[in-house]
Amino acid sequence: MVETARARIEEIEFWVDPDSPCFKDIFAQEDKKFAFHCASGWRSAITIATLQDMGFDAAHLKEGFFTWEKHGGPIEFPDKNA
User: Fold this and answer.
1) pLDDT less than 50: residues of the chain
2) Burial 37-63 (b: 16+ CB within 10 A, else e)
3) CA-based end-to-end distance of the chain
4) 3-state SS record for the chain
5) CA separation (Å) from 44 to 4, 34, 72, 78?
6) What distance in Å separates the CA atoms of residue 39 and residue 12, rounded to the nearest whole number?
């Protein structure tokens, strides 16, 4: 899983390019589906558009994480002692 709490994913196209020094191994897994979210849905929409243009199966929370939480979508909080 790739997490970037309260930040945008800058230059994700470099993360998915195996020839890039910024490449992330998770993007090499064939048939992997990716889901992204941000607070309002705007940044994640841009991220998935980029990934979809590159041939990846990607989706996002259209209305964003805040709307998901507001409507009772399940969320988990990390264990701060782990």
Assistant:
1) 1-7
2) bbeebebbbbbbebbeeeeeebebbee
3) 17
4) CCCCCCCCCCCHHHHHCCCCCCCCHHHHCCCCEEEECCCCCHHHHHHHHHHHHCCCEEEECCCCHHHHHHCCCCCCCCCCCC
5) 12, 11, 20, 21
6) 18
Question: How far, in Å, CA of 42 to CA of 30, rounded?
Answer: 27
- Please name the residue that has the structure tokens 């800058």: 10
Q: pTM of whole model > 0.70?
A: no
Predicted local confidence at residue 60, as pLDDT: 92
The residue type found at 26 is I
Backbone angles phi, psi at 57, to 5 degrees: -90, 105
Q: Would you state the structure tokens that stand for residue 78, as one six-digit string?
A: 């990390």
The pLDDT, as a whole number, for residue 16 is: 86
> Residue 68 region, left (φ>0) first, then alpha (ψ -120 to 50), else beta?
alpha
